[in-house]
Amino acid sequence: MTLAGTLCAAVFVGVFVLIATERVHKTKAALAGAVLVILVGFVDQHTAFHGEPRGPGGVDWNTIFLLIGMMIIVNISRRTGMFQWLAIRAAKAARGSPFGILALLAVITAVVSACLDNVTTVLIVAPVAILICETLEIDPVPYLISVILASNIGGASTLVGHPPNIMIASATGFDFLDFLRVDAPVAALALAAFLFGCWLLLRGSLRVEEQARMRIMEFEEARAITDHRLLRRCLLVIGLTLVGFFLHGALGLEPATIALAGAALLLLLYPEGPQEVLAEVEWPTIFFFIGLFVMVSGLVETGVIAVLGHGMLNLAQGSVAAMALGILWLSGVACGIMDHIPYAAAMIPLIHNVSQSLPAGNREVLWWALSLGANLGANMTLIAAATNVVVAGVAERSGYPIHFRRFLKYGVPVTLVNLVL
Questions:
Q1: Which whole number is the average pLDDT over 56-78?
Q2: What percent of the chain has pLDDT over 70?
Q3: For every residue of the chain, which 3-state class applies, written as one string?
């Protein structure tokens, strides 16, 4: 490896350490690292923003605009109260049964997280789960942990469910149906295994008084809907957007174009001005992605990715199965101790490099191993994904802190079982 490659890798690792230890906000660290690799000359400005000439690299604008489009759609939709309505309906459908509520909240969270931004989904579901648990006079922490785990499992199933999937789709050309074909069955099986494990472990400990259960049945979910007209518009646009994701390959459009079209249509149908909606877009997350993409382009340009790719090929001795299993378990474990977004950003050009030496029919499995490993591994610890951190923050502000070691008791077994599946 050249001196430039060594120094660029050191910058990337240094940013990783700052992010993992939370000494500096992750967006600040990523942008500082991006500026540094350009100023020092590890990558020129044109390549950093547009990719080429040595292969994939630069800011992936398809990923950026897909995220922005989906964030706008979700920010408007949540103003209708539809997510709170779903959670309350789940509690009443379970007739106040503690395990029934846990299971239905998990299923709803997983399904919604597969279709929309999972961070926003848990931001809305978690407070409702706390309200339901307080009404039942039971500990909300197992419910909040189940919301985290279900969101990460559900998000693994579709192209738009988790940022790593968006990034992989942009790098490979996989479409929405490809993720449903490969990832969705595994995610469904993982969710079923998770719920079965919850039933085995918690069925005896989740008990409530009959009086508390009846209070749940008295909730009026209709009050959760604050704007029926906007709700109908949101459901129409979300439906059209999902149809667009299914058909984007046939239409010759990128998923980012579909998401932005849905966002633009909903903004036109939204009676208020766009200022508040756009202000609530997760701009720190967007710029975090941009910084990561620029740093990774530095790794590509200085030859670091190529060196790692050759090392992986030599270690696996040319066995595609060994490489796939290695990527799956490495991703699962690594993303259990670090955020899966920067991990995926670093691995995508590496797998692209490795796959060039494999027969065309054998390349796809490496990408699916990365997708499933990175997404399912996010359930291992409390710091592995933004979803986990967001719910932990909501829980702490509500007086029900989720301790790191307590989360491990749930997260590690679920992650290991899911990776085995």
A1: 80
A2: 93
A3: CCHHHHHHHHHHHHHHHHHHHCCCCHHHHHHHHHHHHHHHCCCCHHHHHHCCCCCCCCCCHHHHHHHHHHHHHHHHHHHHCHHHHHHHHHHHHCCCCHHHHHHHHHHHHHHHHHHCCHHHHHHHHHHHHHHHHHHHCCCCHHHHHHHHHHHHHHHCCCCCCCHHHHHHHHHHCCCHHHHHHHHHHHHHHHHHHHHHHHHHHHCCCCCCCHHHHHHHHCCCHHHHCCCHHHHHHHHHHHHHHHHHHHHHHHHCCCHHHHHHHHHHHHHHHCCCCCHHHHHCCCHHHHHHHHHHHHHHHHHHHCCHHHHHHHHHHHHHCCCHHHHHHHHHHHHHHHHHHCCHHHHHHHHHHHHHHHHCCCCHHHCHHHHHHHHHHHHHHHHCCCCCCHHHHHHHHHHHHCCCCCCHHHHHHHHHHHHHHHHHC
Reading the block at residue 232, the tokens are 């109908």
Q: What is the pLDDT of residue 280?
A: 81
Determine which of 41-45, 105-109, 318-322, 356-360 has the lowest per-residue pLDDT on average: 356-360
